[in-house]
């Protein structure tokens, strides 16, 4: 039993949890929460964008932990690659002072803090209440069985003979997008086009 | 040999709350947009976590759509911030009180 | 040390983090961390080199891979020798990281059962790898591949980088971003070391991009001045153009190295790719396309003609950076990549049997045009930059004609003397108000800066290829290769142009020496007496000059004039650096041509050396004696046109910025504007007019008729409520946001209470 595969039994749970993955989660989560707090408290807009990169990268790492590689890669490419750059351009074009800015936070910030704390308390209470010991699937590699893994039995049923022969996550996600969610996908593309046109129209100097 | 679902949801809740604080308390338009990104990410973490809990890909697909919408939102949002800046030479949201009743 | 080579880049990476973290608080601003780290790395690199030499002298018995963690990449398909179904396939997926590390640590030579045991001197490279990430069907590894080539690069990089570290502690002392500078030197060294130790092409791409990034950061070190940040951007973007070729080429190779019969989609493993290319398991056409794509990458990173324009501009960075990155290490990344994946090019371009191919042509054009351009520069660093371009052209040409060892040997010697020359130029500018304009600000420096003068002259002689300095041996090996290798008659064109290039090299370097060290002091050198730089600058110069003298003896030929020498003296470099395994076109298993070695040819050596001396002599007469048709560029139209062409760098920059970028910008922008004006506006107008028409109709019939009555009545009631609500209307968006979230929280609280009580 190596360290990577060590488990810890939880009281009242028949299925022990994986220690190493939980520890990894904890480290990334602490980093993310700290980064997020810095995003909303730092006095320098550029630094806020950099902390945001940390949070987004952490989120990508969590997706990998949850075996959603494709979303993780998309997160890195779209968020860290494009959105943060957009933010930096926004900071640059709006000539935010590079450096400390005392007036980045409103003087009446405590109202926001109060709302946030109450909201977090409520959310965590109800989450702990509802998903007390729900677990993520142990086998998180979701994917439909490939054609090779299926076999038609004598009475015409299709049975999965080789449960390990499955599509990879990326293949499964793409199949899902382009079959089941095709209409939504098209709507998203129209939305993106509309947003592009709108952004150009709004930002254009007349 | 698994991990608890709750930890992901609690992380999402924390990020959501922090984002809400940022939206309320920040004065700079760009900073508010960043806080909105935090909120969207919190939602995404939840989606992926539930997807892994149910063994259903729909959550991941939906998260992808959220990422796309977020990109569009940032584009439009920053365009608006730019337009505001061009009109008022500042992105301080506290000065935007044209609608005062 | 051979199995623990990964420590070397790791030390530099740690140094980078440490300098960034605590550098500013240290008495010497982080320089001490960098120098300590690079010193340790240099010692470790020497240890690795010694280990490798011992391994070559006593080749290990072919070891069988352990049962656990057999990687499909390691069963380098010996379809030629064995038809056995390899065992252990598919156990990889369950292997934990520890198991992979244990299994990966065993030295798995390319020789397995059935491999050619009769090959008496096979010394397989030492491979060590661990799983980097495993995801649905992919198992991407990261690891080190240690053989003669990577050991040589380790030595070159750590040596030059170490000297540059020491030199910089004096040269950029008091700089506004001293710590930042040292941090990036460390990061650069780390990424270059990782790049040369790459075990798979993915790791190679990562290292390749990282050195590009560091180059960008260091060229733009003084980004406050616009030319510097422009130069950094130019370097970055020009490299991007070639990197597209790199990515495409690597993707092609990845899929080509797959094995459909075993369900392997592809492989990033360098040894697997090269072995398969070498044993004829990859289609010739695939190799051709892949090598052409990779040549694009070489053109950008190694400054080959038409994509070389960034390299001279890169001189905007601090001089030690130019010496380290743009002369000795980073720009040879392209050369290294070709050398590492040589079978791909060898078979793809049919180097062994052709008389001309793309790689050789690119190199030939570059070496000649670069040398011509160096002749008209007045900035000493630009002279050296074009000289670098030209010498890189020599290396690419050598690879293109099949003189693999000669190219790597030239890389090695060139690193020594070019670093020496660059550091010498830095030393001169240090003494002359930080100016690099040798026509305006230098002159007569030999009296004031004796050490710089001596080392610079040694470097120049080595670069010009004078016997017995380093450049002589490597350059003549390349020229001999061009004359003797290949198909019928060899690469004669390359030989002729290469000899001319050597001539030009001697000429422009002599000219540079005249402007710097002889004649009357001008400008800055005249205003005050220049003084020799301090020991931290002079000692690296002396070390490099010493190496420039002796480096050439590492590969004394054993044929022709030198056939009488004992075996322990000659061709040491070739013996230790050149791979003798199945993945190199040297071995018996190669399908098609086998790599040959050129013989030393007295004729070629004499011709090129004499021509170089002749050119140097002509330049001497021109400048020192004032002989020759001075002022011809003013009098003669043809000469003036030629000079203008060189001065404008063949109008390439004008072509890129003016013609291509402008041409793309104009029509596309106009087209977009037309679409905008006509189509989109048209749609908007139609929508607008129809909406107005509909609005008018509704106003007349619906609004005035029915709704008005109702509204007027309710208005009075609404007004009272509105007056009350006005207080809350601050008009600030965020206040509304706060209300919204507050209300949502209250609502959520209500729900939670209801849910928990019921």
Question: What's the short story on this structure?
Answer:
Chain B has 101 residues and is mainly α. Chain B has three helices and no strands.
What does it look like?
The complex is a heterotrimer of chains A (206), B (101) and C (758). Chain A contains six helices and four strands. Chain A has 206 residues and is mostly helical. The longest helix of chain A has 25 residues, at 69-93. Chain B is mainly alpha-helical and 101 residues long. Chain B is built from three helices and no strands. In chain B, helix 1 (6-25) packs antiparallel against helix 2 (29-54) and helix 2 runs antiparallel to helix 3 (58-88). The radius of gyration of chain B is 17 Å and the shape is elongated. Chain C has 758 residues and is an all-alpha fold. Chain C has helices at 7-22, 31-57, 97-105, 148-171, 178-196, 201-219, 226-256, 270-278, 284-301, 310-313, 319-328, 333-340, 342-348, 358-374, 380-401, 404-431, 438-441, 450-464, 470-484, 492-517, 523-527, 535-550, 572-577, 602-623, 632-635, 637-647, 652-725, 733-757, and strands at residues 126-135, 138-146. A two-stranded antiparallel sheet of chain C has the order 1-2. In chain C, strand 1 and strand 2 (138-146) form a beta hairpin. In chain C, helix 15 (380-401) runs antiparallel to helix 20 (492-517). The longest helix of chain C is centred in the last third of the chain and has 74 residues, at 652-725. Chains A and B meet through strand 2, helix 1, helix 2, helix 3 and helix 4 of A and helix 1, helix 2 and helix 3 of B.
Defining traits:
heterotrimer, A: 206 residues, mainly alpha, two-stranded antiparallel sheet, 4 strands, C: 65% helix
Blueprint (SSEs and pairs):
The complex is a heterotrimer of chains A (206), B (101) and C (758).
Chain A (H helix, E strand, L loop, with lengths): L6 E2 L8 E2 H23 L3 H21 L3 H25 L15 H22 L19 E3 L5 E3 L8 H11 L2 H22 L3
Antiparallel strand pairs in A: 1-2, 3-4
Chain B lengths: L5 H20 L3 H26 L3 H31 L13
Helix pairs in contact in B: 1-2, 2-3
Chain C lengths: L6 H16 L8 H27 L39 H9 L20 E10 L2 E9 L1 H24 L6 H19 L4 H19 L6 H31 L13 H9 L5 H18 L8 H4 L5 H10 L4 H8 L1 H7 L9 H17 L5 H22 L2 H28 L6 H4 L8 H15 L5 H15 L7 H26 L5 H5 L7 H16 L21 H6 L24 H22 L8 H4 L1 H11 L4 H74 L7 H25 L1
Antiparallel strand pairs in C: 1-2
Helix pairs in contact in C: 1-2, 1-5, 2-4, 2-5, 4-5, 4-11, 4-16, 4-22, 5-6, 6-7, 7-9, 8-13, 9-12, 9-13, 11-16, 12-13, 14-15, 14-20, 15-16, 15-19, 15-20, 16-18, 16-19, 16-22, 18-20, 18-22, 19-20, 19-24, 20-24
């Amino acid at each position: 039993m190596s360290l990577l595969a060590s488990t810890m039994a939880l009281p009242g749970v028949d299925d022990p949890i994986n220690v190493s993955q939980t520890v990894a989660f904890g480290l990334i989560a602490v980093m993310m929460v700290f980064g997020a707090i810095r995003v909303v408290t730092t006095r320098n807009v550029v630094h806020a964008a950099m902390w945001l990169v940390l949070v987004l990268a952490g989120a990508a790492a969590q997706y990998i932990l949850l075996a959603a590689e494709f979303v993780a890669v998309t997160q890195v490419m779209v968020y860290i690659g494009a959105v943060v750059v957009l933010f930096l351009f926004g900071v640059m074009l709006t000539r935010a002072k590079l450096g400390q800015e005392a007036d980045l936070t409103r003087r009446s910030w405590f109202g926001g803090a109060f709302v946030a704390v109450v909201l977090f308390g409520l959310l965590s209470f109800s989450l702990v209440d509802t998903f007390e010991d729900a677990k993520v699937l142990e086998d998180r590699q979701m994917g439909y069985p490939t054609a090779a893994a299926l076999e038609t039995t004598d009475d015409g049923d299709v049975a999965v003979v080789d449960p390990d022969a499955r599509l990879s996550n990326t293949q499964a996600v793409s199949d899902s997008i382009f079959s089941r969610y095709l209409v939504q996908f098209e709507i998203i593309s129209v939305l993106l086009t509309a947003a592009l046109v709108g952004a150009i129209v709004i930002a254009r100097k007349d | 040999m698994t991990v608890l679902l709750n930890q992901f949801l609690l992380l999402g809740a924390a990020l959501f709350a922090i984002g809400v604080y940022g939206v309320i308390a920040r004065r700079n338009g760009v900073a508010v947009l960043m806080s909105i990104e935090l909120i969207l990410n919190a939602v995404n973490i939840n989606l992926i976590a539930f997807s892994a809990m149910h063994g259903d890909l729909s959550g991941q697909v939906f998260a992808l759509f959220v990422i796309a919408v977020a990109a569009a939102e940032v584009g439009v949002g920053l365009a608006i911030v730019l337009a505001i800046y061009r009109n008022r030479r500042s992105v301080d949201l506290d000065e935007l009180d044209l609608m005062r009743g | 040390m051979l199995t623990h080579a990964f420590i070397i880049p790791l030390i530099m990476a740690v140094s980078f983090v440490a300098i960034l973290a605590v550098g500013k608080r240290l008495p010497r601003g982080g320089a001490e961390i960098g120098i300590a780290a690079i010193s340790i790395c240099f010692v470790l690199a020497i240890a690795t080199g010694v280990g490798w030499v011992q391994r070559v002298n006593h080749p290990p018995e072919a070891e069988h891979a352990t049962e656990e963690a057999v990687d499909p990449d390691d069963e380098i398909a010996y379809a030629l020798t064995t038809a056995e179904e390899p065992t252990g396939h598919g156990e990889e997926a369950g292997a934990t990281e520890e198991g992979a590390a244990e299994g990966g640590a065993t030295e798995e030579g390319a020789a397995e059962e059935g491999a050619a045991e009769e090959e008496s001197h096979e010394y397989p490279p030492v491979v060590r790898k661990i799983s980097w990430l495993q995801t649905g069907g992919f198992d991407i590894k990261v690891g080190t591949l240690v053989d003669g080539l990577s050991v040589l690069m380790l030595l070159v990089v750590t040596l030059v980088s170490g000297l540059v570290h020491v030199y910089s502690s004096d040269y950029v002392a008091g700089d506004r971003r001293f710590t930042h500078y040292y941090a990036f030197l460390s990061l650069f060294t780390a990424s270059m070391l990782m790049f040369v130790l790459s075990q798979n092409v993915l790791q190679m791409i990562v290292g390749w991009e990282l050195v590009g990034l560091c180059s960008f950061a260091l060229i733009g070190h003084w980004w406050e001045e616009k030319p510097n940040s422009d130069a950094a951007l130019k370097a970055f973007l020009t490299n991007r153009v070639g990197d597209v070729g790199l990515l495409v080429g690597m993707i092609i190779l990845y899929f080509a190295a797959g094995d459909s019969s075993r369900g392997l989609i592809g492989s990033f493993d360098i040894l697997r790719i090269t072995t398969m290319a070498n044993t004829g398991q990859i289609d010739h056409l695939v190799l051709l396309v892949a090598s052409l794509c990779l040549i694009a990458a070489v053109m950008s990173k190694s400054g080959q003609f038409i994509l070389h324009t960034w390299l001279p501009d890169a001189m905007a960075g601090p001089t030690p950076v130019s010496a380290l990155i743009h002369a000795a290490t980073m720009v040879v990344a392209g050369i290294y990549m070709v050398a590492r994946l040589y079978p791909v090019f060898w078979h793809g371009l049919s180097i062994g049997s052709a008389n001309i191919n793309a790689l050789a042509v690119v190199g030939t054009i570059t070496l000649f045009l670069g040398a011509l351009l160096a002749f008209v520069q007045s900035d000493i660093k630009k002279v050296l930059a074009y000289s670098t371009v030209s010498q890189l052209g020599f290396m690419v040409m050598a690879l293109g004609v099949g003189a693999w060892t000669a190219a790597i040997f030239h890389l090695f010697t060139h690193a020594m003397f070019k670093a020496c020359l660059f550091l010498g130029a830095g030393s001169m500018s240090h003494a002359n108000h930080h100016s690099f304009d040798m026509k305006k600000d230098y002159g007569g420096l030999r009296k004031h800066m004796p050490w710089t003068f001596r080392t610079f002259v040694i470097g120049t002689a080595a670069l010009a290829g004078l016997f017995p300095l380093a450049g002589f041996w490597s350059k003549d090996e390349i020229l001999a290769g061009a004359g003797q290798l290949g198909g019928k008659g060899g690469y004669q064109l390359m030989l002729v142009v290469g000899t001319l290039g050597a001539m030009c090299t001697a000429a422009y370097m002599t000219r540079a020496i005249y402007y710097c060290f002889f004649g009357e002091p001008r400008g800055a050198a005249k205003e005050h007496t220049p003084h020799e730089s301090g020991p931290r600058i002079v000692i690296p110069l002396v070390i490099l000059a010493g190496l420039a003298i002796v480096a050439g003896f590492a590969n004394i030929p054993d044929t022709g004039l030198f056939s009488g020498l004992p075996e322990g003296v000659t061709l040491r470099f070739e013996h230790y650096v050149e791979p003798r395994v199945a993945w190199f076109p040297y071995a018996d298993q190669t399908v098609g041509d086998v790599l040959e070695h050129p013989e030393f040819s007295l004729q070629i050596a004499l011709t090129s050396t004499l021509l170089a001396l002749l050119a140097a002599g002509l330049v001497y007469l021109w400048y020192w004696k004032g002989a020759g048709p001075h002022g011809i560029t003013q009098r003669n139209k043809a000469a003036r046109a030629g000079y203008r062409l060189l001065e404008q760098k063949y109008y390439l920059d004008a072509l890129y910025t003016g013609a291509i970028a402008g041409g793309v910008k104009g029509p596309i922008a106009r087209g977009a504007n037309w679409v905008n004006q006509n189509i989109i506006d048209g749609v908007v107008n139609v929508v607008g007019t129809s909406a107005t028409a509909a609005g008018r109709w509704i106003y007349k019939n619906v609004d005035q008729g029915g709704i008005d009555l109702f509204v007027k009545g309710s208005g009075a009631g609404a007004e009272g409520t509105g007056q009350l609500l006005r207080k809350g209307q601050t008009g600030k968006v965020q206040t509304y946001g706060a209300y919204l979230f507050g209300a949502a929280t209250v609502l959520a609280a209500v729900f939670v209470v209801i849910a928990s009580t019921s």
